[in-house]
Predict the structure.
Amino acid sequence: MTLSRISIVLASVLMLWSLTGCGCSPGARKFNVQVTGREDLLASGHVEIDIIAINESDRSRWEQLSMDSYASSIQRQDARDRLRTLSLSKDAPTQTLSMNDEIWNRWMRDGSMHLFVLAPTLRVPGASGAGAADARREILPLDRCRWKSGKIEIEVGRSGIRTLTPPEPPKSK
């Protein structure tokens, strides 16, 4: 093959590659969500953690929900079949919601793109506000392009919920 033919073939391959893109295809995926309670928090008892995936149309309602009233709210009761509750204690400080749990299939069917991690029984002085402003609520994207691995690690302490494996920033369009 001559040099000019090789150049044409390489240029064609590069052009096709640039048209298909080299990035990630957006969309939700399943994760192993590992939640660990800090020792100082669990020394005085247990804490419940609710995990629920929400689609875009329900997001605002869940962001605005008062965490002070969430534990006994109708919204929590109505969502029982759509959420998982993990109970952290001194004897079981770490719990994992497996990516193989059947709840993920429901969340994917519902078009869920946001994972809400809620600590309804946690008392954090001064915690209040909408969205992630309340330390008892963590909102995470389920977009596969935002995570380096299939595991999300979360820590719960007396000051609230913290993601140990934060997502990548959103890609600019």
Notes: The chain has a mean pLDDT of 87. The beta strands are 32-37, 47-54, 83-88, 94-97, 114-118, 137-141, 151-157, 160-163.
